[in-house]
């Protein structure tokens, strides 16, 4: 396994709904390529707006 990483060294993406940057989380390790939203709230808001 890998060693410890500093928060600043983690991969970052931009949320498709709010446009804010968000960092990699351990629970997203297997699906990082598919993650598009920073939170459940943004994911739900995107679906309600018809996209």
Which properties best describe this structure?
51 residues, alpha+beta, two-stranded antiparallel ribbon, 1 helix, 18% helix, 12% strand, elongated
The pLDDT mean sits at: 88
Largest beta-sheet details: 2 strands, antiparallel
Rounded Rg: 13 Å
The helix fraction, in percent, is 10-25%
Order of helices and strands: EEH
Strand order of the largest sheet: 1-2
Short description:
This protein has 51 residues and is an alpha+beta fold. Helices cover 18% and strands 12% of the residues.
Structure description:
This protein is an alpha+beta fold and 51 residues long. The chain is 18% helix and 12% strand. The chain has a two-stranded antiparallel sheet with strand order 1-2. The longest helix has 9 residues. The chain is elongated and about 40 Å long.
Blueprint of the fold:
Blueprint: E1 12-14, E2 21-23, H1 40-48
Antiparallel strand pairs: 1-2
